[in-house]
């Protein structure tokens, strides 16, 4: 072991990092070890990593430790030569009889891969995407890349001392150049915040979610030295995969939403006002219709005319039946089912004194029930970049309670009290308030979807009272979005959030279970209720016809461009797994690095459906082999091309129609139903 050689290796590595990972270079070049240092034992010819504060040897014989760790990892990450990651969609996954869903259904329904014969993916010493938590001395990464082939490598480190030590032990250039120089492969180095696990998770998550179809279908995680902090971050990633899939969206839903919005634009609905500069300290109650709302009516009554009362979704019926008139009603749902539920429970007289804040895509029939109304644009929709005037509301999905929270965070309010936001249930027969539409004579059984079926099989989640309650993916996704949005805002400005529900524990929201404490907080908070109410109701401008025409043409051009580019990629694809993988990678990168960067949220009209085509195609082909794989790839290629060729004209056939609200068949069908003539 030559010490001069180690010093020269450090210089070489810094030069390589400067040229290929420039954001990391100053962090490492100017770094001096603080708590950990490398010990090169020239007598024993071994590397050690030492904690200089405690004298503890963190890694003794680094070479030997790396060999043992990598062998253990490889044995654990696969069984019977199969790579166990996550499943895919099978027959009956895409049941909606609309344009893109029918194409996806054609693929999975004709695929030889079924839920019954699915046995995950072949290992064959190949990992499509590997996420390594911890650089350490880097020897485990070197051993790993000598043992398995990796297409896309993501390396995360939270400790600059360890990253710095690796500069003396590993030739990063020799290790990474094969990945960097191959246009079908990639390597990412990330230095995560060492003292903020939430921020570290957020940075890693934001990178992974832009890597379909490899994440999550073919992503394997490696926790170097099995550290608890890294394992907690990885556990959060695994836990949020369900939420990830649910937030993809799809073209069928997007075009349905756009059609609704066009009718609302023509009706002159004004846009949501810009964030407030005053009175944001006024307390706000965000109210969902979870089962615990029944036990909190006295709390809400005590806050009337002191705090702004915001009803979300079906909470409107619960509050009405209990004699409480909200200041604002927030709606999100774009499906016809929402309009039908409204028409059975709400009249124009019920809405007097309440301002509707509804997503632009909400059915026109709902806007017609309110005299005072504003429309907002959620962040995960193409319309946000098209019509929002740089005034987009984040965190609005998947439920109206998320939207209510998102709107009032967007407006700038600092003191939020969350009611009926249970995000779970104790009794499967009581998943909403007893006064909600689900349990009254107005129950629209023909309109309630399957979300609330089979609740007995719910998964556990921690409750506020120390017990576990049950939840389902839809509710859990809502909870996680609330937690993420609260954390994001708390990092940038003053915010106090209080969970006044009796359901799931909500991170970043203090639980209140004493009405006396609640009343005292409301009483002592500053803010002017009447002034705040007046300012919020000062709406923005509507979307005029000229703006509509310009933006619809821009979107049409974008769809034609994306279709043409992806078709070109597919035309050059070979019928093989490697070519499918490479093509999918290029398509995903095109959407992220070209379309999203240039068109921002417009790309949401493409993302969901294209990601589903890539994910389904990749997963099914990967799980199959031999002739079955070949025939499936041919099927996938044909159907995907059909979709892309038909896509621009389908868009035009919807948005350029001259049809009234009364005569539009899209306004009288649920998203789960086919529409004749469209």
TrEMBL record:
Name the Pfam families for this protein.
Maf_flag10_N, MptE-like
Q: Where is the 6-hydroxymethylpterin diphosphokinase MptE-like domain?
A: 256-427
- The residues forming the signal peptide are none
InterPro entries in UniProt: Maf_N (IPR045376), MptE-like (IPR002826)
Q: Where is the Glycosyltransferase Maf N-terminal domain?
A: 12-245
Report the protein name in the record.
DUF115 domain-containing protein
The species this protein was found in: Thalassolituus pacificus
């Amino acid at each position: 072991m030559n010490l001069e050689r180690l010093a020269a290796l450090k210089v070489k590595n810094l030069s390589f990092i400067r040229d290929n990972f420039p954001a990391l270079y100053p962090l490492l070049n100017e770094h001096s070890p603080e708590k950990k240092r490398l010990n090169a034992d020239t007598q024993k010819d071994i590397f050690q990593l030492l904690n200089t504060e405690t004298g503890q040897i963190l890694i003794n014989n680094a070479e030997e430790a790396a060999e043992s760790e990598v062998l253990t990892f490889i044995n654990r990450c696969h069984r019977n030569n199969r790579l166990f990651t996550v499943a895919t969609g099978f027959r009956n996954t895409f049941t909606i009889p609309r344009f893109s869903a029918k194409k996806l259904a054609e693929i999975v329904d004709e695929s030889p891969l079924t839920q019954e014969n699915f046995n995950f993916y072949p290992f064959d010493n190949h990992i499509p995407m590997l996420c390594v938590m911890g650089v350490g001395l880097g020897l485990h990464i070197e051993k790993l890349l000598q043992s398995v082939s990796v297409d896309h490598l993501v390396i995360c480190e939270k400790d600059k001392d360890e990253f710095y030590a690796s500069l003396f032990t590993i030739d990063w250039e020799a290790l990474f150049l094969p990945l960097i120089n191959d246009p079908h492969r990639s390597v990412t180095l990330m230095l995560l915040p060492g003292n903020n696990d939430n921020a570290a998770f957020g940075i890693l998550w934001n990178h992974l979610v832009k890597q379909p179809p490899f994440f999550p279908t073919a992503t394997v995680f490696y926790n170097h030295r099995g550290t608890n902090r890294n394992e907690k971050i990885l556990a959060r990633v695994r836990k949020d995969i369900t939420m990830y899939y649910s937030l993809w969206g799809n073209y069928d839903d997007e075009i349905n939403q756009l059609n609704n919005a066009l009718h609302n634009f023509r009706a002159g609905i004004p846009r949501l006002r810009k964030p407030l500069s005053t009175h944001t300290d006024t307390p706000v109650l965000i109210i969902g219709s979870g089962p615990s709302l029944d036990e909190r009516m006295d709390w809400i009554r005590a806050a009337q005319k002191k705090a702004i009362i915001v009803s979300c979704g079906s909470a409107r019926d619960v509050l009405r039946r209990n004699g409480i008139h909200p200041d604002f009603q927030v709606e999100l749902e774009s499906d016809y089912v929402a309009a039908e539920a409204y028409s059975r429970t709400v009249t124009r007289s019920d809405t007097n004194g309440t301002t509707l804040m509804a997503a632009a895509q909400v059915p026109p029939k709902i806007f017609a029930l309110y005299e005072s109304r504003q429309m907002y644009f959620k962040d995960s929709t193409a319309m946000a970049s098209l019509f929002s005037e740089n005034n987009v509301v984040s965190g609005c999905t998947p439920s109206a309670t998320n939207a209510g929270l998102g709107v009032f965070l967007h407006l700038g309010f600092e003191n939020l009290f969350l009611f009926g936001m249970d995000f779970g249930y104790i009794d499967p027969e009581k998943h909403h308030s007893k006064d909600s539409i689900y349990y009254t004579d107005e129950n629209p059984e023909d309109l309630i979807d399957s979300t609330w079926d089979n609740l007995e099989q719910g998964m556990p989640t921690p409750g506020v009272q120390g017990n576990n309650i049950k939840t389902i993916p839809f509710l859990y996704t809502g909870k996680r979005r609330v937690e993420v949005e609260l954390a994001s805002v708390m990092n940038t400005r003053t915010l106090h959030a209080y969970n006044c529900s009796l359901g799931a524990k909500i991170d970043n929201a203090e639980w209140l279970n004493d009405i006396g404490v609640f009343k005292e907080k409301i009483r002592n908070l500053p803010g002017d209720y009447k002034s705040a109410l007046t300012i919020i109701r000062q709406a923005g401008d509507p979307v005029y016809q000229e703006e509509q025409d310009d933006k619809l043409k821009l979107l049409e051009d974008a769809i034609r461009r994306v279709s043409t580019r992806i078709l070109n990629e597919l035309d050059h694809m070979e019928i093989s797994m490697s070519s499918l993988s490479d093509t999918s990678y290029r398509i995903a990168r095109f959407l992220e690095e070209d379309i999203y960067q240039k068109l921002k949220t417009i790309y949401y009209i493409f993302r969901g459906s294209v990601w589903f085509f890539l994910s389904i195609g990749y997963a099914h082909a990967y799980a199959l082999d031999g002739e079955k794989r070949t025939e499936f790839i041919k099927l996938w290629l044909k159907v995907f091309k059909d979709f892309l060729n038909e896509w621009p004209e389908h868009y035009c056939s919807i948005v350029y129609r001259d049809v009234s609200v009364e005569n539009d068949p899209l306004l009288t069908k649920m998203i789960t139903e086919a529409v004749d003539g469209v």
